[in-house]
Amino acid sequence: MGSQHAAQIPTSFGKELRACLRCSLVKTYNQFTDAGCENCPFFNMDQDSDRVLECTTPNFAGVIAAMEPPASWAARWQRISKFAPGCYALSVTGMLPEEMQAICEHNNVRYIPRN
User: Fold this and answer.
1) In the prediction, which pLDDT does 88 show?
2) Are strands 56-57 and 60-66 parallel, antiparallel or unpaired?
3) What's the Cα-to-Cα distance from 49 to each of 36, 73, 87, rounded to whole Å?
4) Rounded distance between C-alpha atoms, residue 35 and residue 14, angstroms
5) Sheet strand arrangement including 26-28
6) Is pTM, for the whole model, over 0.85?
7) Cα–Cα distance between 29 and 20 in angstroms, integer?
8) Bridge partners, residue 28, by sequence
9) How confident is the model over 45-82, as pLDDT tens digits?
10) Higher model confidence: residue 53 or residue 114?
11) How many CB atoms within 10 Å of residue 43?
C-alpha cells in the first residue's frame, strides 16, 4: 500500500457526516475539526472550525470505502486513487468557495468540482 497513511474512518453514520468538497473524504464534523482532511491539509480545518463548514458539506450521496485506492478500479473511476485510504462520497453537492479554490491553486493542487 505504500507509505500513505489511512484517513480516519467515520465514527458514526448519522446526520453529522460531512464530505470534503475537494476530495470527497467522508468524516464527522468533529473528526474534521480534530484532524482536518488527510488529503487537503492546506485547508487547515483542524485549526479553524469555520473552515470545516466552508470546505465540507453534508450534501452528498453514497459512500465507498477505499482500502487500497491505487489498486482499485472503483477508486480510479471515482478519481480518488491518489488519495489516502478511507471512506469517500460517491457524489458531492456544492463547490468550494473562491477563497478555498485560490488556496488550492496556491498549493499547486487541482480542484475539480465533484458534482
Assistant:
1) 96
2) unpaired
3) 9, 34, 21
4) 19
5) 26-28, 17-20, 56-57
6) yes
7) 10
8) 17
9) 999 999 999 999 999 999 999 999 999 999 999 999 99
10) 53
11) 26
**DSSP assignment string, 38-107:** SS-GGG-GGG-HHHHHHHEES-EEEEEEESSGGG-HHHHHTT-TTSPSEEEEEEE-----HHHHHHHHHT
Contacts of 60 (CB under 8 A, 6+ apart): 19, 24, 26, 89, 90, 91, 92, 93
Do the Cβ atoms of 79 and 90 come closer than 8 Å? no
Nearest to 63 by CA among 109, 5, 9, 113: 9
Closest by Cα among 66, 47, 45 to 57? 45
| 50 dihedral zone (left: phi>0; alpha: psi -120 to 50; beta) | alpha
CA–CA distance, 25 with 37 (Å, rounded to integer): 7
Q: What is the predicted pLDDT for the residue at 3?
A: 41
For every residue of 32-44, DSSP letters joined together read: HHHH--SS-GGG-
Structure-block grid coordinates of residue 91: 457524489
